[in-house]
């Protein structure tokens, strides 16, 4: 378990976790906690939320003291708000968790280490603070030089369309087949799940491609680095980070992620979601700068807003359109995508 970031004292953050929800505005605001609960349920002893909190993970509602008694090591702040700031209640609850003997980790833009009261509570209790959006020192500028190993990158038509879920599903499916495959996290939720990674949206722009190179170094075991994508080349706010990942990952394979009911880019009603063929080709063109042999191997859909028959029909339609396997990783798995990936690179 990586412990880079901000540790007030020598120590070790990690599971078991108490997942902190507090009082989020809506279900989307707890996506960090939900991602950890979905992919690492064995690590989660319960959830902490205020009495008027409606969103839930379906975990036991417990206090910080109860979580400690059940073996929790760390409270994870699993909620996010506009701007990633710590509201007064989050600060108070963080101090209470530290006083209960828990380490605290967060993925907010406002850092735990920036609050003197939180730092003081950590020091007096001998606890560790970890800010996932605090890149490790020493990330180099990308160089674009070819490196050994195989890499897959998930890309998207928009933000929040399932790139992390798809990448983790691919890791699980490939490992079940006996393939060497490792999830490489580039966002705060992924870092909490993997225990390491680089928060690519907090990296200085000149170092984004270097950050992708740094988390997926050369490997000689015939295995795959599965790199979590971010943003979209077609999102005016986040295209820069998407492009940096495409260049630094030097992907051999791309999987395109898409939410078929979305009509415009998240948060930007004036920008429609790109047509799938155009989006896929743009990602392939960009990726060819550092890997001219890159291939598209599949499409992953988030069909949570569709009925089961609609989801199947949409997958078939997109598969026919792009001539690629198309599945919803959550309800259908990714077996056909893995089949195609391994067939494309069998040698």
UniProtKB/TrEMBL annotation:
Q: Which residues form the D-glutamate N-acetyltransferase-like N-terminal domain?
A: 57-135
Which Pfam families does UniProt cross-reference here?
Answer: DUF1611 (PF07755), DUF1611_N (PF17396)
Tell me the domain of life: Bacteria
What positions does the domain D-glutamate N-acetyltransferase-like C-terminal occupy? 141-338
SUPFAM superfamilies according to UniProt: P-loop containing nucleoside triphosphate hydrolases (SSF52540)
**Stored NCBIfam families:** DgcN (NF041892)
Please identify the protein, giving its name as recorded: DUF1611 domain-containing protein
Source organism: Rhodanobacter glycinis
């Amino acid at each position: 378990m990586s412990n880079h970031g901000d540790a007030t004292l020598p120590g070790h953050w990690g599971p078991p976790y108490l997942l902190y929800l507090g009082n989020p505005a809506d279900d989307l605001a707890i996506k960090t906690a939900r991602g950890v609960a979905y992919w690492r349920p064995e690590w989660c002893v319960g959830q902490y939320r205020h009495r008027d909190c409606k969103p839930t993970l379906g975990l036991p509602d417990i206090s910080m003291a109860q979580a400690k008694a059940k073996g929790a090591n760390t409270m994870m702040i699993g909620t996010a708000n506009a701007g990633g700031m710590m509201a007064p209640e989050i600060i108070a609850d963080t101090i209470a968790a530290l006083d209960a003997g828990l380490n605290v980790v967060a993925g907010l833009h406002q850092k735990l280490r920036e609050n003197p009261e939180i730092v003081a509570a950590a020091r007096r209790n001998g606890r560790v603070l970890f800010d996932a959006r605090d890149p490790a020192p020493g990330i180099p500028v990308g160089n674009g030089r070819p490196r050994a190993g195989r890499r897959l990158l998930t890309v998207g038509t928009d933000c929040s369309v399932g790139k992390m879920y798809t990448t983790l599903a691919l890791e699980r499916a490939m490992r079940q087949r006996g393939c060497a495959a490792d999830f490489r996290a580039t966002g705060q939720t992924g870092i909490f799940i993997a225990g390491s990674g680089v928060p690519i949206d907090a990296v200085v722009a000149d170092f984004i491609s270097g950050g992708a190179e740094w988390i997926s170094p050369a490997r000689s075991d015939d295995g795959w680095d599965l790199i979590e994508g971010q943003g979209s080349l077609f999102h005016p706010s986040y295209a820069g980070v998407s492009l940096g990942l495409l260049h630094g990952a030097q992907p051999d394979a791309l999987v395109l992620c898409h939410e078929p009911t979305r009509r415009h880019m998240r948060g930007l009603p004036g920008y429609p979601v790109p047509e799938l063929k155009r989006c896929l080709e743009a990602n392939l063109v960009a990726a060819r700068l550092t890997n001219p042999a890159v291939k598209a191997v599949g499409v992953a859909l988030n069909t949570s807003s569709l009925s089961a028959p609609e989801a199947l029909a949409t997958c078939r339609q997109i598969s026919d359109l792009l001539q690629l396997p198309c599945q919803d990783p959550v309800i259908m798995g990714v077996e056909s995508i893995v089949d195609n990936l391994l067939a494309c690179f069998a040698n």
